[in-house]
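Let's practice the habit of predicting before peeking. Look at the sequence and jot down your guess about where helices and strands might fall. Then scroll down.
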Amino acid sequence: MSFIKKNWILILVLFVSGAMLVWPLVQRRFSSMKDIGTLNATQLINHQNAVLLDVRETAELTGGKLPNAVHIPLSQLPGRAGELAKLAGRPVVVYCARGNRSRTAGGVLAKHGFAEVYSLHGGIGAWKDAGLPLEKA
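Done guessing? Here is the structure:
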């Protein structure tokens, strides 16, 4: 008990850091947005006419983008999501550089009525690593 009294700050830091590590796992579990790999993404594109949404910033497009992808930077997505309204009935595969920002974009799209939204696991880096085609931006 004296150890706890003397080291309560250390125990608090341990608890908070552990919670921060577990939070992304909990968030993914209860999110309506699901992660999808490159194989499943190409299947969605080919069989269900999925929309590809690139949420990287304009400066990041120098290396190319996925074929036929719509580019709306994440910073502009809340104001421009209406541009995608006509596509709301189709699955949407959102991607960024590594897959972090696409989760945030999924929340924005869900608020605008998109029901089937996927995050490309690993982002465009995973797409390139799989040897899949890119087009110039």
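How did you do? The mean pLDDT is 89.
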